[in-house]
Amino acid sequence: MSAERARVTVFDTTLRDGEQSPGCSMNHQEKLRLAHQLDRLGVDVIEAGFPIASDGDFEAVKAIAAVVRRPIIAGLARACHPDIERAWEALKHAAHPRIHVFLATSDIHLQYKLRITRDQCVTQARDAVRFAKSLCDDVEFSPEDATRTDPEFLCRVLDAVVEAGATTLNIPDTVGYTVPAEFGELIATIRKRVKGIEKVTISAHCHNDLGMAVANALAAVAAGARQVECTINGIGERAGNASLEEIVMAMRTRPDRYPYETGVATEQIFAASQMLSEITGVAVQPNKAIIGRNAFAHEAGIHQDGMLKNPLTYEIMTPKSVGVPDSKLVLGKHSGRHALGMRCEQLGYQFDRRALDDIYRRFVRLADKIKHVEDHHLLELIRDTHKPAASATPLIEPIPAEQAAAVNVPTPSVPVPEPEPARPFPVVSATNAFGLPLPVHADPHHEQTQQEDYLWGV
Ligand SMILES: [Mn+2]
User: Fold this and answer.
1) Which NCBIfam families match (predicted)?
2) What is the pLDDT of residue 368?
3) Contact 46, 9 (CB under 8 A)
4) Are 105 and 143 in contact (CB under 8 A)?
5) N or C, where is the chain less crowded by C-beta within 10 Å?
6) Can you give the pLDDT at residue 440?
7) Rounded to the nearest whole angstrom, what is the distance from the C-alpha of residue 237 to the centroid of ligand 1?
8) d(CA 172, ligand 1 centre) in Å
C-alpha cells in the first residue's frame, strides 16, 4: 500500500521565513539547536537562512551546513551575483547544498518594486539560475508573488529557468492571496505548459493571510506538486506559513484523500514545536491544530465519557503519534462523573457510587468558581469530603483566577520569557534591487541583527 504512495519532500523554512517574522529572531546557538531537532524530525530540506542578509545569518547557515549532514541545506538568494556567491560561500561545505534563488514576476512587483520590464525579468532569472547552477547542482527557483502573476508570463519565466538548470520550481503564494481550487489549477497549468517540467520538482510555498495556507499546499500536492514549504507552528511573515505539522498529519490521518508519504517522524513534532516556542518566547495558540495545548484536551462530559470508553470516539489521531505524552482530560464544570471518577482513581482514590456523587456535587460547585480543576484541587476536595466533620466544613476557598491560570499552564520546566515588545516594520528603500543589500532606515529601538530588515522574500 505504502509503495503506491507518492513521496512529498518536506522543505522546512522555520529558520528563514519563520525567523523573519516579528518576535521570532533566533541567535546562532538557538538556530543550531533547532536545526538538529529538524534533522531528528526528518525534514528533507532545511532552509537555514538568507546568507547575504547579515553576517549572523551567513554564519548560522555555514555552521548548520557543517554539522547537520543528512538533509539538504538551502540558502536563499536574490537573483543577483553577490547574493548567490554569498549563499554558496555559506553552503559549499554542506553534504547536500541547495541554492534557492528568487525573483518577483508579478507586474505589480516588476513595476513598483524592481522597476524592470517582463523581458528584463526573464533575462535576470535565467542568468541568475545559470550562475547558481555553475556553483551548485541543486538549484531552486521561486517566482515571487507567483499567484498574482499572469500565468502566461509565469510559464515563460519557468521555461527559461528550467532551461538554465533549475531542479526545483517553487511556486510561492507570497501574499497569501490564492484559494485551493485556483492554486491547484495553477500547478496543473505549470505541469502542462512548462517545457522540461517532468525533470524538475514542483513546490508550493503558501502563506496564511486568509487562513488557507495548509489547504492551498495540499491542493498543490493533489495537482502534482511534490515539495511543500512549511514551518514549525506555522510561523512566518505576517499570518505565517503553512504549518508543517498540519500538512504532515493531514496526509497521515487521511491517506484515503492524501495518498502521500513524507519522511517526517511525526513523534518528533511536539518536541520541535515546544523547542521553537521556548526559543522564541512566542507561545502557540491553545486551540492550534495538532500542537496547541488544547488540541487533545476534551472537557465536555459526553466527550470525556466517550474518550474513556474508546478514544476513537473523539480522537482522529493519537497524541502519541505527534509526541504529546497523553491526551489531557480537562476537568471543568462540563465534565461528567465518569471522568471525575477516573481521575480520582488515577490519584489513588476509589469511590462507590454514593461517595462519588457527593464528590461530584462539590466538584461542580468548585468548577463553577474556578475554570479548571487541577489535581491538587481535587485532592483537597477529596480530603475535605472525607474528613469526619465534612458537612460542617465550607468548600475550599476558590483560588484567585490568575493563580488558577498560572497553575493551569502545562509547561512545568520551561520558564516563559518576557514577550518581546512589538517592533514597527522597518521601511525598505525601493531602489536598486539587484546590487548589494538594500539600505534600510534605521530603527532606533531595533536591537536585533539586521536579518529582520529583510522583511521580504518569497
Ligand atoms: Mn514566504
Assistant:
1) leuA_bact, PRK00915.1-3
2) 86
3) no
4) yes
5) N
6) 38
7) 6
8) 7
Burial 386-416 (b: 16+ CB within 10 A, else e): eeeeeeeeeeeeebeeeebeeeeeeeeeeee
Q: How far apart are the CA of 206 and the centre of ligand 1, in A?
A: 7
Contacts with 389 (C-beta within 8 Å, 6 or more apart), sequence order: none
Segment 409-414 long-range contacts (CB within 8 Å, at least 24 positions apart): 410/293, 410/328, 411/274, 414/274, 414/278
The pLDDT, as a whole number, for residue 380 is: 85
C-alpha cell at 149: 502573476
Q: Is 322 in contact with 290 (CB distance < 8 Å)?
A: yes
How many degrees, rounded to 5, is the angle at CA 82 between CA 76 and CA 87? 35
Q: Please, which residues bridge with residue 103 across strands? A: 143
CA distance 437 to 311: 54
Helix (H, G, I), strand (E, B) or coil at 188: helix
- Which sign, positive or negative, has the C-alpha torsion 251, 254, 258, 259? positive
Please tell me the distance from the alpha carbon of residue 13 to that of residue 277, in angstroms, as a whole number.
16
> 388 CA distance to ligand 1 centroid (A)?
65
Nearest to 15 by CA among 175, 227, 231: 231
Residue 332 Cα distances to 285, 305, 358, 368, angstroms:
20, 14, 16, 8
What residue ranges of the chain have pLDDT lower than 70? 1-3, 325-329, 346, 387-456
Q: What distance in angstroms lies between residue 163's CA and the mean position of ligand 1's atoms?
A: 25
Residue 336 Cα to ligand 1 midpoint, Å, equals 45
Length reported for the chain: 458
Report how far residue 140's alpha carbon sits from residue 75's, in angstroms, rounded to the nearest whole number: 10
Q: Give the pLDDT confidence score for residue 105 in this predicted structure.
A: 98
Q: Following DSSP, what letter does each residue of 74-99 receive, concatenated?
A: EEEEESSHHHHHHHHHHHTTSSSEEE
pLDDT tens for 260-302 read 999 999 999 999 999 999 899 999 999 999 999 888 887 777 7
3 state SS of 406:
helix
Sign of CA dihedral 10, 63, 18, 287: positive
Q: Which domains does the chain have, with CATH numbers?
A: 2-280 (3.20.20.70), 331-408 (no CATH)
Task: Compute the distance from residue 173 Cα to the ligand 1 centre, in Å.
Answer: 8
3-state secondary structure (DSSP) of residue 389: coil
Taking the C-alpha atoms of residue 368 and residue 140, their distance in angstroms, rounded to an integer, is: 57
Q: 329 by DSSP, 3-state: which?
A: strand
